[in-house]
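Much of what follows relies on a compact textual record of a protein's fold. Think of the row as the fold of the chain written in a discrete alphabet. An example makes this concrete, so a full record is given next.


***
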Amino acid sequence: MIGALLRMPWEAVHERMLAGLHERGYSDLIAPHLSVLQYPGPENTRPSDLAARTRMTKQAMNYLLGQMEELGYLERVSDEADQRFKRIQLTRRGRAASAVMREIVLEIEAEWAKRLGRRQFAELRELLARLGDGDGSARR
């Protein structure tokens, strides 16, 4: 059941993120676009690397990138090191949307800290960070 317990807050954050973006003037973004903009963001990333990071097919990622490029959030530019490849660059609108996403996350964190208490929220963050550190220490 741990998966469900982790998924429910994530879904709440995701829903709140999309609603907050829409309220702040980014109503053209849809839920799948959040995968592109999620931390650490797509800046200077190859589309294939972003697809792998988000566990999407390259085709699905390129479709989303095309949509977001048309909407003015990003552009795909030639890789200076290898012209066969493209890299993603956020536009001013894309950087602004990313900043709004960070603001929304901070709002959620403040609410959760108030709800759980600062100490318990700090413990929650620390425990989640330990689980996500990838070195296996959380599996003991």
Remarks:
- The chain has one domain: 2-134.
